[in-house]
Design goal:
single chain; mainly alpha; transmembrane helix; 85% helix
Length: 79
């Protein structure tokens, strides 16, 4: 089992939970990197944990999107 997939999933959930802060973007990027590396290792060495890695990548992308969206909304609200 590859732990990078689980780490990516945790970072993805955290990036969604903190999407109203700039921290959500950073957590999403870090989790995305872990997810892509983990998915590559899973495919290369025929390990388990592919669903966790894919779920982490999807959550990270969603968290990054929400962070950008909330940042734009806050900037428009303040201007």
């Amino acid at each position: 089992m590859n732990n990078k997939g689980i780490v990516s999933l945790v970072f993805g959930v955290l990036s969604i939970a903190t999407s109203f802060l700039a921290v959500g973007f950073i957590l999403g990027i870090v989790g995305l990197i872990f997810g892509v590396i983990g998915l590559g290792q899973i495919n290369r060495y025929r390990q388990s944990g592919k669903l966790e890695a894919l779920g982490g990548i999807i959550c990270c992308l969603f968290g990054i999107f929400l962070t950008i969206k909330s940042s734009i909304s806050i900037m428009l609200l303040l201007s």
